[in-house]
Amino acid sequence: MKLTMERSALIKALGHVQSVVERRNTIPILSNVLLSADKDGATFSATDLDMEIIDQTSAQVGTGGQITAPAHTLYEIVRKLPEGADVELKFAGDDPRLSIQAGRSRFNLPVLPSGDFPVMSSDGLSEPIQVDTNDLIRLIDKTRFAISTEETRYYLNGLYLHTVNEGGQTKLRAVATDGHRLALAEMPAPEGAAGAPGVIVPRKTIQEARRLLDDAGETVQLQVSPAKVRFEFGRAALTSKVIDGSFPDYMRVIPRDNQKVALIDNKLFADAVDRVATISAEKSRSVKLALEPGKVILTVRNMEAGQAVEEVEIDYDGEPFEIGFNARYLLDVAGQIQGETAEFRFADPASPTLVLDPADAGVRYVLMPLRV
């Protein structure tokens, strides 16, 4: 096998695939990237057995073939080569190493046979669904912060992608929750999405898909089955297993009739929360909100660090009441509000609070209060 590539094309392809490779592997082949060369160019593949990323790129191929080499080492070598360099990759059967040459730099890396590299099948996947790239970015960005990191409830360790029919309209919806907060974003369902199975896409897959979306074209192809999901971003593709479990009935926790409505300047509020949270206890990061007509008073008390109080003007004319939240959760939601104003809908100090974005009707956030 012998091929030559421009450094920028090689670094882009390797950058797309190598991040799926775990730093520590008990199975040596999983530390490697599969390099394939033929008349159409070069293809790079990497997998952790749960997810596989493949990227194709153009190359001048002298001799076709396949071999695997250490993914992170190869990436670091190419990253440190000078910009604009032509990189030659060569593997000959008589030398059990991959040769990398660029200008006066030469490297030789150990290899493993390509036949040992595991390939993920794409059997049973649905017909491709064309999704606008920006729409998919929005669904992921508005919700992924709420994905649970606790392994005990594994079915919450991903983003629930599914279609719903509301008021005669079919919508593609993404939902994430960790039991303390919930994020929901939706869009009109693309053609062919109705009837596709709902899937819980693992957190790591969502992170990798989001990274690849930055280099995608105008649309992305999405395919799903009860066991797998596949995203195609032009010449790159990501195939992943989905979480085998049932996502909870999230609609039951979304408040429908919270009567106390407050309109708050999102940036002023977020800055105030950030300031008073400076002295909060690290574990709970609790901040108390005391709502009164026209204002909210934020208070944090910490036995060791002292007390912080700040007042923010708001549009509220209901009964005065107090409620507590985790400051980090308030800031996470504030970071997703697109417009200048956030709409908080409260019921009482012990019930979930609904947060809406008047500038984006397709998102909803639910925050569970803390005792203060």
List the helices and strands and how they pair.
Blueprint: E1 2-6, H1 7-18, E2 32-38, E3 41-47, E4 51-57, E5 60-63, E6 65-70, H2 71-80, E7 86-90, E8 97-102, E9 105-110, E10 129-132, H3 133-141, E11 158-166, E12 169-177, E13 181-188, E14 199-202, H4 203-213, E15 219-224, E16 228-233, E17 236-241, E18 260-265, H5 266-276, E19 286-292, E20 295-302, E21 306-315, E22 321-326, H6 327-334, E23 341-346, E24 353-357, E25 360-367
Antiparallel strand pairs: 1-5, 1-7, 2-3, 2-6, 3-4, 4-17, 7-8, 8-9, 10-15, 11-12, 11-14, 12-13, 13-25, 15-16, 16-17, 18-21, 18-23, 19-20, 19-22, 20-21, 23-24, 24-25
Helix pairs in contact: 1-2, 5-6
Question: What would you note in describing this structure?
Answer:
The chain is α+β, with helices and mostly antiparallel strands and 372 residues long. The protein folds into 3 domains: 115 residues, DNA Polymerase III, subunit A, domain 2 (DNA Polymerase III, Chain A, domain 2, Roll); 124 residues, DNA Polymerase III, Chain A, domain 2; 114 residues, DNA Polymerase III, subunit A, domain 2 (DNA Polymerase III, Chain A, domain 2), CATH 3.10.150. The protein is built from 6 helices and 25 strands. It has a 12-stranded antiparallel sheet with strand order 14-11-12-13-25-24-23-18-21-20-19-22. Helix 1 packs antiparallel against helix 2 and helix 5 packs antiparallel against helix 6.
